[in-house]
Write a structure and sequence with these properties.
The protein is an alpha/beta fold and about 240 residues long. The chain has nine helices and seven strands.
Length: about 240
């Protein structure tokens, strides 16, 4: 069913000018980025690893895996991201995470949907924050993105199926191996909610793919609880040079 046009929304669109999400300049169209900022965002396009979404800087046949996925494939089936996390693009995520730029959520969600492969009616689950962090920050940015994606695609938003049991120390300076250890047992699915996961395709949503350790930990728990398959979707992705 189509949402009814809201008079409030129409008025707000009229009163609040559209602004570039990066530099704040006023836009004439709903493009999200102005013409000078647009080329500075390293949007990820094909070719990329069919599994983890790592962009290749050379032509390769469709369906190829990167060296890491060939060697040891992650438990999630695919991971896709909108843009590489660089000095130019990180502002978009940091603003979204730490200030009140929440109005960017629908735009970011539409970009994320465009990066996604076809899939049938997944459950949209955000990577959860521990409740103490949620309390300090008042919102989970991954939750806002998941909620918008579910709304735009008419999928189910399921924020309470996956819980973060304990607060993991900041992962900023850890290697992938140490990050994996750090988050391995951080997530759980409440016993009473396991039925809802059984046989379902899961779309796991976060703001940034750093090493993939958090997504791997969440995916492992979801598959153990009986999910059919897990796909990960993030706004940004740290891209390190890879050999194949
Ligand atoms: Zn701009
Ligand atoms: Zn890969």
């Amino acid at each position: 069913m189509q949402d009814k046009p809201s008079l409030f929304k129409w008025l707000m669109d009229l009163l609040i000018p559209l602004r570039c999400v990066k530099c704040g300049s006023i836009l004439e169209e709903k493009a999200g980025l102005c013409v000078s900022c647009w080329p500075s965002i390293p949007f990820i396009t094909k070719p990329y690893c069919a599994c983890c979404g790592l962009p290749f800087d050379f032509e390769i046949e469709e369906g190829a895996f990167c060296g890491i996925c060939n060697h040891h494939a992650p438990s999630y089936k695919t991971a896709r991201s909108v843009f590489a996390y660089t000095a130019e693009s990180k502002d978009l995520i940091l603003k979204f995470k730490h200030t009140d730029c929440l109005s960017s959520a629908p735009l970011f969600a539409s970009w994320m949907i465009n990066s996604l492969d076809e899939m049938e009616n997944p459950l949209c689950i955000p990577v959860p924050l521990h409740w103490t962090r949620l309390f300090m920050r008042t919102y989970n940015q991954a939750g806002l993105l998941a909620q918008q994606i579910a709304k735009l695609k008419r999928w189910t938003y399921a924020p309470s199926l996956l819980m973060r049991k304990h607060r993991t120390p900041s992962q900023g300076h850890l290697s992938k191996k140490d990050r994996l250890k750090n988050v391995a047992r951080a997530f759980e699915i409440p016993e009473v909610k396991r039925k809802q996961i059984l046989g379902r395709v899961i779309l796991l949503i976060d703001d940034v793919f750093t090493t993939g350790a958090t997504l791997e930990a969440c995916s492992t728990v979801l598959l153990k609880a009986g999910a059919k398959e897990v796909h990960a979707l993030t706004l940004g992705r740290v891209v390190r040079p890879q050999k194949i």
